[in-house]
Amino acid sequence: MNFEEPVSGLLNRIAAALERLAPPAAPRIDFDAGSAFVWQADPEGFVPVESVNRIPLSLLRGIDAMIGTLIDNTERFAQGLPANNALLWGARGMGKSSLVKAVHGEVERRQYEGSSSERGDTALKLIEIHREDISSLPRCLHHMRRSPHRFIMFCDDLSFDADDTTYKSLKAVLEGGIEGRPPNVIFYATSNRRHLMPRDMVENERSTAINPSEAVEEKVSLSDRFGLWIGFHNCSQAEYLEMVHAYADHFKLDVAGDELERGALEWSAARGSRSGRVAWQFIQDIAGRLGKHLNL
Fold it and tell me: Nearest to residue 36, comparing CAs of 82, 103, 117?
């Protein structure tokens, strides 16, 4: 150390060193930068999504009842009316996450078709949070609580394992905590599991606990925080072929009807299942062989 250095110079050096050690300032949050964002837990921030990966609501076939239920709930929420958190659960590939994204797009479109005086400064935003970031949900909601916008908080493929305790944070946020869910936020989640945990885990709790009902109740009660349970089931062959035809018509694929159905059935047999996802994968294969681009 240079003992002849003026005190002011020494203080400036110390201040500069402290600035280098300090964490960077949090970026300014601008929810007007897009209509959809991905929550980033570390460092905290909302990353705008330039183009949401979704298909039009009109292309979702075989799930009419589910569409009606979710779009009604979402429209009420967008209008500032009471609405429920929703858990979309059930069969793989039947359009659970596609429905959430499509409903957001449809309600957003209807908002923009209304007059500016009706919309005011409020817009419906879609925020995706990854399963591994659920523990940071309270911090995420803190940012949205102060915004004039309304938010669909979306978590795809939500589930918990036996030693996972992050579900407690989610329970407190949805209902039961001091602050609770902000009035401008609604939570939509998709899962293959109705109670968000493996069946064998629930049964094991029942079989080994002194009081089986109490042992299971804490974990199962998370799904009770969702006022809407929207179930998705495996589709029939007729529904599967309806999905294939809808895609083929929408993208104007030049394939004869009987040839299209024969190929679709062979494709599903090779996959061992029928679902909206399998239908879409078959259409992608057909379009690729025809040299046609699929522009949604």
Answer: 103
